[in-house]
Amino acid sequence: MQPTPEEDAVTSADTAAQTTADAPAATAPALRKRHGNGPVFFVLGTLFALLCAVGWGYSVMNYSGLGGGVYHQVVTFSAPAPDQATISYEVNSRGGAECLIVARDEQLVEVGQTRSTAEAGNRMVTTTVETVRQAATVEVASCREQGSQD
Length: 150
Hints:
The longest helix is centred in the middle third of the chain and has 23 residues. It contains three helices and six strands, in the order H-H-H-E-E-E-E-E-E. The protein folds into two domains: 57 residues, no CATH class; 75 residues, Sandwich (Immunoglobulin-like). It is of the alpha+beta class. Helix content is 33%, strand content 38%.
């Protein structure tokens, strides 16, 4: 059975190492083809992977979300008249919240907007939005802590 090129390189390197103990540099290229450059790349790769894992863990542990700590959920909305729409939503915040309410028509064109405030804690808020024509949907576009400039 014929040896593979890899086995042939290792065998020739081993026989050369046995015959010439004074020339270790001659065996290095053959062994390097088979085994790489030693543990240097393995150690560097392991350190890089460990650094990435620690960084990822740190970022996940410190993630607080994009909402800034104010959470909202629409409960119901209606548009009974062409000039107004009503929305009821729940807001949870630590220091009070200011929310932007937007009304849109069937083509999703904005037909009205207003700002609404809520006290701290878990609150149910009902707001009326004046519209320029009949609204099809009303949504809470954003909520943020009162007094924040973000």
